[in-house]
## 1
Amino acid sequence: MGLFECGDLDESHVSDHDKPIREKLLAYPWMKVLLRGGVNGESDFKMAPQRRLAYDADFNLKAINHTKEHGNRSAAREFNINESMVCKWRKQEHDLRLAKKMKKSFHGNKVRWPQLENRLDHWISKQRAVGRSFSTVIVWIKAKVMANEMDINDFKSGPSWCFHFMKQWQLSIRTRMMVSQQLPVDYEEKLTYFWSYCESKISEKNIQPDHIINMDKVPLALICR
């Protein structure tokens, strides 16, 4: 029997004279793969499926900028990607610059009304900036109003369209857990009056500093002076 049997890594059948040679050959990783697959090419050995990676728009634009200065191959080596991906991203440069930085792909159907969706996303951002809450119903009703204003007659919005729109723009409905109490308009005047009242009582009662303790749960921020 030889040093190897087809698809066999067991050394029980190898003579003592051939064992050192066998160990040296097995030090090479490709030899183990060859043995697992069979020296005659008859094998059920399968490579592990390679996981596909998704890159966001910000990463794509960095690769494109590098390409303009150093070329496609240099960008592929620098960012550890395939050169064909760089070529594809260069064709999509205009859309990538308009997309959000964290957007990862352009898979799926193209947006039929991009201007409408851009305007709606801007409106949602403004509502959130002032602390207003809204639901999906409000979103697709607002979309209908904007479509009428923009003379888009074939626009049909509904729960399904709203779901895909929010997924496309990476939006979510946030639940307001609590609403903090707003300070009154004249809070500075009241704070000054409260501090003067405390000073007058301290002087009237002749209260020493070591007799003053922390006042808990006072809704005003006092600056000791």
## 2
Amino acid sequence: MGWLRKSLSDDSAKSASLGILSFEAAKTMSRLLSLYESLSNEQVANLKGNVVKSRGVAYLNSMDEGFLLGLACAERLEDLDKSAMVIARLGQKCSDLALQQFGAVYTDLKLGTIDFTKLEYKSRDVERKIAKMEKFVYATQGLFNSLEGLAEMEISEKKMKIWKKNNDVAMQGQQKANFDSFAQNISIKRKQVRLFKEASLWNQTFDKCVRIMARITCIVYARICYVFGPYIPVLPATAMSRNIRFLRQKDLGRVYPELSITDPSKEQIGSKSGPIPVNTGKTALVRFYTRKSILFVSEEGKYGMKNNRVLHAAGPATLGGSGLALRYADVILLAERYLDAAVRIGNDARENLYEMLPENLKVAVRRKLGKKLRRWGGGGDGELLAAGWRDAVEDIMGWLGPMARDTVTWQMERNLEKRELRLKPSVLLVQTLHFSDKEKTEAAIAEVLVGLSCIYRYENRLLTRLEC
């Protein structure tokens, strides 16, 4: 990795400052920091031990843990590719010729022609660079906020000057005090902007910024290969993952228990039998293309750089492929709120929830509710039935609710990414409703809504009797 070493030539000292491009650089840094943190031992253990094995993900998405890890790997790689593209573009403005060639180096890295052994994740030197990047990101975010505030104050300043010019009269005591206070505040704000420019990426050179981001990019990629390499054969193998791939499956758990996982190539991707009864005569699979297509590798072995490939990988039988993931997440969260509500839910609230459903789900809910009501018949055992329905609905919401919340969180993170710099690991698509089987999700939602209707039919009737 000699190309990453700091150049001592005079050309490097003449590198220009980032200036306005500091905000794009800070956004890229924040994405790299998020990726770096998402690959820590704790986060990887959570992904393998909790996320892919959670009831909702296993039932609605897939039981194949290797397949789910492949999707997670692809999403992390796509985020890294986006960062690498920005770094390569910024590298063209560097005075160091080695940094100008980062795009070619990253390609070689992904082809496995660069030695990974010197890319140590969480080493002392790397942690110092991570801390430095965090300071730059926070300072650049502060600069952005200060510039926004200064811009608003300067607009007010121009209006005040126009007012003074058109009203050529002596200002009175309180009025003059207000003008003086404003002048003092805008002066403080300008000083704050200057300080943030000194501490942020604004005054840093292209060479310094690109060098530190390039190194972290390579380290993150090496870490991805180490974490996911044992299950994704198309990734370049690190020394550790290369050895693991050749271990016998029965010895894998004994030698590397944290990496013990079923090999997807030896097990058919199927769906788990969950709490909602399904027609066993119909195979319910979440289908994608091939492992190579998940990792976006062409037949020639070249890695694609097209944006949002993971997002568009969801097939037509999934909620993401049908464009219903966020809509159903909103329905589930509203139903969860109504289930936990301490007050009586009126007909208007129930009608609003019903109107959020697509037509096919409305028909399914009406049909299912009609059967339940005819079976119930409004007998004296309403209290027992309502309690049973509440237990059943709470059990379903126990695994359906977290996926709905993660779906909304994923969307919010993508929207906030345009305005805020986030350093924490982001939610993965694989833990949302995006890849969930449409038929099974709709069956679960219908069960929840029918249960809610039965619960509140009894509880509202009971409250009405008590009020009379």
## 3
Amino acid sequence: MSNEPSNESGNNNKNKVLGALSGAVKAVGDKAKEIDSKLHVTEKTKQATDAVIQKGKEIDGKLHISEKTKQAADGIAKKTQEFEEKHHVFQKTGDAVKKGSDFVADKFKPKDQK
């Protein structure tokens, strides 16, 4: 006879542990609900979040931060495009990468394929 517990008793132990954990989780959840019902934590958090969002909208309305940020981003995109059209940086970079890749590939070719 083996000293190891049978599969049935192992399952029994797992079920007991799972039952105890389930009970503990439920107790914690119930306590959180009880605290929330007394202190109204959820509602106060929602109100605070709404107030922060509203204040952000007020500040944006006064200072036009969203609009200025969009204009700045549009300006950067336009200047980048103009610079590229004038200097062809992307094309030159692509050509250099291709030449470098061709050079490296050529170095690794077997001598009979060169």
